[in-house]
Write a structure and sequence with these properties.
single chain; 201 residues; mainly alpha; 0% strand; elongated
Length: 201
């Protein structure tokens, strides 16, 4: 029989599962990490896991959203200005890409197997909700730059989807070719900056 936990115990165990999950998922990926590994590391019965998360994929995605939120906050702190130049926007794109590339947990998502597995296993509403969060986080910046006539007037959804598409390039590093990747990313960031940011001539 699965034992119950006090509210304090639940909070502690949930945070422990998140910490252990981040470590194991970073090392092994979501497919190769078992619920038994997660619960054993925390010291609870395997069946107790489902009192905290619907599945290991939901735990993985919760951690992913936390890690992404941390990266977005770093970007916002660095580039939340009333005005933005094309060069600064390009630097912002490359800064975000570098933060992702240095994060072992998020890099797991950009190894196609983890992404495909998540899409199959997550509740269907999670990915649309995730996209809406992206728009909510970035919309103040986008609106500010548009109001100050520094960014083209496309919808927030379109611009957010475009930026998301830029970061998806990490999924295709091998197809692009390691020897061309850095130059290709730099050129793509420059093209996006030119297409999205207005500068007086």
């Amino acid at each position: 029989m699965v034992r119950g936990f006090t509210e304090q115990e639940r909070n502690v165990i949930r945070q422990q599962l998140i910490a252990v999950g981040k470590q194991l998922f970073s090392e092994f990926g979501v497919k190769k990490t078992s619920i038994a590994q997660l619960t054993s590391a925390v010291g609870i019965a395997q069946g107790s896991f489902y009192q905290f998360f619907e599945s290991k994929e939901v735990l993985f995605f919760d951690i992913l959203e936390m890690e992404e939120a941390d990266i977005k906050n770093k970007i916002l702190l660095k580039y939340d200005h009333d005005n933005i130049t094309r060069q600064e926007f390009k630097e912002m794109l490359l800064y975000g890409l570098n933060l992702i590339d240095q994060n072992p947990f998020i890099k797991r998502v950009f190894q196609g197997e983890s992404m495909e597995h998540l899409v199959r296993k997550l509740p269907p509403e999670r990915l649309p909700q995730h996209a809406e969060k992206d728009e909510w986080v970035l919309s103040p910046l986008i609106h500010k730059w548009q109001e100050n006539n520094h960014m083209v007037h496309h919808s927030t959804q379109t611009i957010t989807a475009t930026l998301r598409g830029f970061y998806m390039i990490l999924l295709h590093k091998k197809e692009i070719g390691e020897e061309l990747y850095v130059d290709a990313v730099d050129l793509l960031a420059e093209c996006l900056a030119t297409g999205l940011i207005k500068e007086s001539t």
